[in-house]
Amino acid sequence: MPMLQLEDINVYYGAIHALKGITLSVEEGQIVSLIGANGAGKTTTLRTISGLLRSKTGGITFFDKPLQKKSAEYIVCSGISHCPEGRRIFANMTVSENLEMGAFTRKDKKEVAATLKTVYEHFPRLKERMFQMAGTLSGGEQQMLAMGRALMSKPKLLLLDEPSMGLAPLLVKEIFTIIKEIHEIGTTVLLVEQNARMALSISDYAYVLETGKISLQGEARALSESEDVKKAYLGG
Amino acid sequence: MYGRSIRYGVLHIPIEIEGIRRGAIMLGDTLFLQFIQQLINGISLGSIYALIALGYTMVYGIMKLINFAHGDVYMVGAYVGFFAATAVRLPFFPSILLAMVVTGVLGMAVERLAYKPLRHSPKIAILTTAIGVSLFLEYTTMLVLTPQPRTFPPLLPETIYTVGGLIVSFQQLVILVVSIILMILLTYVVNHTKMGKAMRAVSYDPDAAQLMGINVDKTISFTFFVGSSLAGAAGVLVGIYYNSIEPLMGIMPGMKAFIAAVLGGIGIIPGAMAGGLILGIVEALISGFISSTFRDAAAFAILIIILLIKPTGLLGKNEHEKV
Questions:
Q1: B319 CB within 8 Å of a chain A CB
Q2: Number of compact structural domains in chain B
Q3: Per the CATH hierarchy, to which homologous superfamily does domain A1-79+155-236 belong?
Q4: Do A93 and B197 touch (CB under 8 A)?
Q5: pLDDT in tens, B132-150
Q6: What ipTM does this complex have?
Q7: Segments in chain A forming alpha helices (H)
Q8: Which residues does UniProt assign to the signal peptide (chain A) (predicted)?
Q9: What is the pTM of this model?
Q10: Is B222 among the domain residues?
């Protein structure tokens, strides 16, 4: 029984048919990645899961509970956290306020404080800058803040959208190491990446998205050896 | 809004026969006194502008809408205060509290019924609706309560203090104190409460706020409640100060407060406070030293100048940094 199941998801932007019958599943405890070119519908898929967009058909279930037509608030509360593309941190708030916003739906202050401690352990640089305005952080630090913020709701499933975007190679490595750490402490990850090589290297399973449809899927290792994927996404 | 500040606005130039020198000193003193006097008048007028401007700026911040009905919410606040004081015979504080609650709920209702259904429509649709709501409130009030101006009951003693040639009324002091308390409260709410932080998050990035599990609808409702209740308080304060209210009384102060919000930088809360005070002081100085006929012109001239020189307002930044 998969943790998250998407069944025949169709999403439209006005007249544009962005997702054409997506069916995919995420098993608990895995890292699953969603790769594909710009505009293939990766971000749209994540935004549909977290309730920002609606599917016209089909359904989404999380631990067997239906998520479609539920509010974004409900979805966060049920254990899904979405770290969006482009970080989308609150630049007009301090680092610690941003993290506090991540725990918005949680009531127990002691438990939130405990989560905050683990987030600062994953991202020691955020602790150093906790009183700094988030807008003044470097790109890599902002990415860390966005991920830390997403972890503050203590998600069972973390949706990560393009965590490596616009970062220097060394930082990309660091971010991926942290993703592995987050996974090791028991968070299931659904990762959207343009950097297919990096994504496949840490994933258990992967889906390839092409113009709103899933064109290929399989074990990440098998996919990274497939000729089609190599040609299209791994640069030969 | 008219009359009283003109009374203080007459320039008394003493005619001294005994000597030019002494006369000149006297003239300097009077001018200085006059300046301080207008400053006092301007600050109490300006704190009212600031209270109304805060509602404009908060609503703009959270949904990028100029809520043209806001001045009329202020008018409704004045009427609620009026009926609380006359029909129910409530004293000052309960009256102003009641006005704040009623206008707060009115603001929420306007948002729910008129603006929420249009949230995903083009901006112009919702802006036009705001003008419609404004006319609706004005003319419904006229229909129900007649266009006749009403005399606001003296909820506060009309004591006047004279300190070293300066005239300060008890009412001016109350206006100032109440406005300052409300602004401090608002600043606290926005910066330190969960709802306030949600407001800042939604106004910065509604999508990201939703991903935090923030309920955007509730947050917008709350913003309308707070903004409208501040306008309601301003309505009662103005009713007491000018002791006359009528259904169209919200138009001019509404526009002025809008100018104040733009002057300070629309969407920025301290900007609305500063903008309101500056506008009030400028208006008082203009009516005191030039002529009160130019007062409104000065306000609109400020709007034009700020739009030409710094369209983002005094405290405005050029753009949100979204890296």
A1: no
A2: 1
A3: P-loop containing nucleotide triphosphate hydrolases (3.40.50.300)
A4: yes
A5: 999 999 999 999 999 999 9
A6: 0.92
A7: 42-49, 72-77, 95-102, 109-122, 124-128, 139-151, 169-184, 196-202, 220-225, 227-233
A8: none
A9: 0.88
A10: yes
